[in-house]
Write a structure and sequence with these properties.
The structure is a single chain. By secondary structure, the chain is an alpha/beta fold. It is built from 15 helices and 22 strands. The strands form 6 sheets. A 4-stranded mixed beta sheet has the order 1-14-16-15. It starts with 15 loop residues before the first strand and ends with a helix. It binds shikimate-3-phosphate. The site of shikimate-3-phosphate has 10 residues, from α7.
């Protein structure tokens, strides 16, 4: 499939204008989950209507939670009628998580502590992704989960039951795994504690605090007192910085560009992409707004600027794990060789992101070297069009589309539909910014 509107005529046209960044994907999942488990009606404003989030929404609808899409005073809302921790009904069919690792991992925790049977499956990519990381700690809590490949891959069959609380040291910094355990803990009498080996996004913790769930963070220890009840809330979800990242890089590399990105969530566990781009010499201005639902928010202005190479490793690599594909595009334009290290997780995301970006950028004429846990990319300015494979990975599709802006004919991306996983409307927004 080609992106016709983005080919050829787009070459080096400056990108100018303002973009309202759509809702944060991670926060939308958590907002739906906590609202369904609260008591009463929560209204969620600014939610992300993407395929991944629709999977979480449909999962709760299949467990007889009423979720309505409404529009009040021009604002799209989700109205969720929460029935408390024990208010879910056994789903009649398997729960299809599609491409969404967050849906599958968070739901596996939550469903383990329910009193009914459920099955979680997903698309071809999700059925290959590692689930042992959630199954192992949940089994320590007494969960009965079985799955393919000796219980390590989906479909997962869960015989929900009363669990016992645990104190668990996470072997890897993962927001999905920590959230799976915390959600299982939320449904379990007593105190469940997760120790983090390093920081990962903290939206679950912030959402717990917002709903006044008994939750404490002390250093690396995160504890939840489960089994209680909490009340519905009105939630306002900020824009997703991982979606803003495509415009931050596009604006930085296309000469003459100036883009305003409105309503971007700036949770410190997510701002690694700003840190990296600023180290590379990007011109990004931050205009803070008031916080929303316990999450800081700002407008960002990005202007074209020459970029220079950098090194991304350790916790900074974890902080930009979702922005790796588009940061590879920035690296490909920067002066010098940019090195990414400590990103072994990139191999088990929606696709093997190291291989997919390496193949795509090589096709554009870049010199690069892959490592087991990263990549080294030598920047250059003379890019050529290529045809690239996404393996259905939304972030590869968007990154290679942005890279195509600076080629003669644009890139031919084999799957543009997968962009709807996280960012419906991306291609339209990008084409609206191109100044003729
Ligand atoms: C997410 C956590 C991260 C991230 C993913 C969304 C979340 O995954 O890459 O896109 O919403 O909890 P890990 O938990 O595997 O690091």
């Amino acid at each position: 499939m080609t992106a016709p509107r983005l080919s050829g005529q787009f070459k080096a046209k400056p990108l100018r204008g303002a973009v309202l960044i759509p809702g944060d994907k991670s926060i939308t999942h958590r907002a739906i989950i906590l609202s369904a488990l609260a008591k009463g009606r929560s209204r969620i404003q600014g939610y992300l209507p993407s395929e991944d989030c629709e999977r979480t929404l449909a999962a709760f609808q299949s467990m007889r939670i009423s979720i309505q899409k409404t529009n009040k005073s021009g604002k799209d809302l989700l109205e969720v009628e929460g029935k408390g921790l024990k208010g879910l009904t056994e789903p009649e069919d398997v729960i299809d998580c599609g491409n969404s690792g967050t849906t599958m991992r968070l739901m596996s925790g939550l469903l383990s502590g329910q009193s009914f049977f459920s099955v979680l499956t997903g698309d071809q990519s999700l059925r290959k992704r590692p689930m042992k990381r959630v199954i192992e700690p949940l089994r320590l809590m007494g969960a009965e989960i079985s799955g393919r490949a000796e219980g390590t891959q989906a479909p997962l069959a869960i015989s929900g039951k009363a669990l016992k609380p645990v104190a668990y040291h996470l072997p890897i910094a993962s927001a999905q795994v920590k959230s799976a355990i915390l959600l299982a803990g939320l449904c379990t009498e007593g105190r469940t504690t997760v120790y983090e080996p390093g920081p990962s996004r903290d939206h679950t913790e912030r959402m717990f605090e917002f709903f006044e769930v008994p939750f404490k963070k002390k250093g690396a220890a995160l504890s939840v007192e489960g089994g209680g009840s909490f009340q519905a809330r009105d939630i306002n979800i900020p824009g997703d910085i991982s979606s803003a990242a495509f415009f931050l890089v596009a604006g930085s590399i296309v000469p003459g560009s100036e883009i305003m990105l409105k309503n971007v969530g700036l949770n410190p566990s997510r701002t690694g992409v700003l840190e990296v781009l600023q180290k590379m010499g990007a011109d990004i201005q931050i205009q803070p707004l008031s916080s929303s639902t316990n999450e800081p928010v700002a407008d960002l202005i990005v202007r074209f600027a020459p970029l220079k190479a950098t090194l991304i490793e350790g916790p900074l690599m974890t902080a930009v794990i979702d922005e790796f594909p588009i940061l590879c595009v920035a690296a490909a334009r920067a002066e010098g060789t940019t090195v990414f290290r400590d990103g072994g997780e990139l191999r088990v995301k929606e696709s093997d992101r190291i291989e997919r970006m390496a193949e795509g950028l090589r096709g554009m004429g870049l010199d690069l070297e892959t490592h087991s846990d990263g990549i080294s990319i030598e920047g250059r300015a003379d890019w050529k069009s290529t045809a690239c494979k996404t393996d259905g990975d939304h972030r590869i599709a968007m990154s290679m589309t942005v890279a195509g802006l600076l080629t003669d004919g644009g890139n031919h991306v084999d799957d543009l539909k997968c962009i709807n996983t996280s960012f419906p409307g991306f291609l339209t927004l990008l084409s609206q910014l191109a100044v003729t």
